[in-house]
Each structure stands twice: as C-alpha cells, then as structure tokens.
Design goal:
The complex is a heterodimer of chains A (63) and B (165). In chain A, 43% of the residues lie in helices and 0% in strands. Chain A is built from three helices and no strands. The longest helix of chain A is centred in the first third of the chain and has 14 residues. Chain A starts with a helix and ends in a 23-residue tail after the last helix. The C terminus of chain A is likely disordered. Chain B is built from eight helices and no strands. Chain B starts with a helix and ends with a helix. The mean pLDDT of chain B is 86. The chains are: A mainly alpha (63), B mainly alpha (165).
Chain lengths: 63, 165
C-alpha cells in the first residue's frame, strides 16, 4: 500500500493531475493541531503520556 | 514511423511533455545543472526510442515518465557510491502500467478529500513532499508517536475508500 502510494505521488510530480494538484495545494503546513479526545486521554495532568488501558488491560489502539 | 512523422511527434512531445519532464526532475534533483543534464538525457532517449515506441503497449505519458524515472534512479545510483541515498529517489515499480494512469490519480484525489485534515496533511507531506514522519512531527509540534498514529489511520482510511490501487 505505502509503495503504491509513493509511486502514485511520484507520478503526480510528472502528470500534475489537476484534481490531485488542487488537493495538494490546499494541504497546508501542519501546525496548531489540537489533540483529539482519544489522544488527550493518554496525557495526564503532568503532561506525561500514559498507556490507556481497556477493560482487557490492552493498550487501546484506534485502529 | 517515417522521419516526417517522427519529427512532428518529437515536436508535439517537446511541447506537451518537456515541461512535465522538467517539473518531475526538479522535484527529484536539487542541483539545477544536474537537473538540466538529466532532462537533456531523457529527451535524447525519448528521441532515440520513438521509432520503436508501440502505443499498444503503453501510453506515451507512461513511456516518457518511465524513461524520466529511470534516469533519476540512475543518477542517484551513480551518486550512491559517494553519498547517502537521497530520500527523493523513486522506488522501482513492478508494474507501472497499472499504476501510472490518470484515473488512479483522480481516485486518490477523491479519497484524500475524505480523510481528516490531519490525515491528509500527513499523507501529502510524507508521500508527495517526502518529509519524514519525524520532520512532520517537529513541524506540527506533536509527538512522533502521534504522527505515526495519524499516518496509520490515514492509510487505513485510504484503503477503505479505494482498496488496492
């Protein structure tokens, strides 16, 4: 999947497909992102991340 | 292909594809002088290969792009002996005919629009602008692990939108 994605974006440097170019141009620099509620749950008051344990005691992954 | 047809075809190719070749090489090679040499080599190979080009096997765009991509790969392979491999080096493809089609790019565009802003940004910066996830994390002032999560989510969402490309 990642390899295919890299190949497609590589081809975009050549083909300059208009639709994809618009999406790319609209994509700005990352910054000012706020953590999602899930990510915030992993940060305690001291600012240190901790493992979020589900009922089964496993780290709760989003995926 | 007769000489006259060849000349007309080359004229058309220069007009339509030379800017694309230049744009592609510039995105991969930082040195303007080296880039110029590479572009010249590419167009020479196109001119030499044109009589034997079979439109039944590949589109003209795909064929020229393959020549351009291989030229960039060769450039970096020659440098490898002296420097570390640049992250801009294109990866070899097993079946580029399947990959390099306009509708695949449009499908990708539609799928990207369905991602969250963060997922889309990470995907574009990582795969189009060739930023490492660590550099993206630094730029976003977020932890590397958070960016990795966003990246993984983005890939999953893309896969659910368009499956296998």
């Amino acid at each position: 999947m990642e390899k295919r994605l890299r190949e497609l974006f590589d081809y975009q440097h050549f083909a300059k497909n208009k639709l994809l170019d618009d999406v790319i141009k609209e994509t700005g620099e990352p910054g000012g992102w706020v953590l999602s509620d899930d990510d915030m749950a992993m940060v305690n008051a001291a600012g240190e991340p901790e493992a979020h344990r589900s009922k089964k005691g496993l780290i709760d992954e989003d995926e | 292909m007769k000489t006259n047809e060849n000349d007309l075809m080359m004229e058309r190719i220069y007009k339509e594809y030379y800017p694309k070749v230049v744009g592609y090489v510039r995105s991969k090679v930082s040195s303007p002088d080296d880039g110029e040499d590479i572009c010249s080599n590419i167009m020479m190979k196109v001119m030499k290969g044109l009589p034997g080009f079979d439109p039944a096997k590949a589109s003209l765009a795909t064929w020229i792009f393959a020549i351009a991509r291989n030229a960039v790969i060769d450039y970096y392979r020659q440098r490898k002996a002296y420097e570390e491999l640049d992250e801009n080096i294109p990866c070899a493809s097993d079946d580029f005919e399947t990959i390099f089609k306009e509708d695949a790019l449009e499908e990708l565009a539609h799928a990207l629009r369905k991602l969250s802003e963060q997922e889309r940004t990470v995907i574009v910066l990582h795969y189009y602008r060739n930023m490492t996830l660590k550099d993206i994390a630094s730029s976003a002032n977020m932890s590397y692990s958070n960016i990795k999560k966003i990246h993984a989510r983005g890939l999953l969402h893309l896969k659910s939108e368009i499956g296998q490309f």
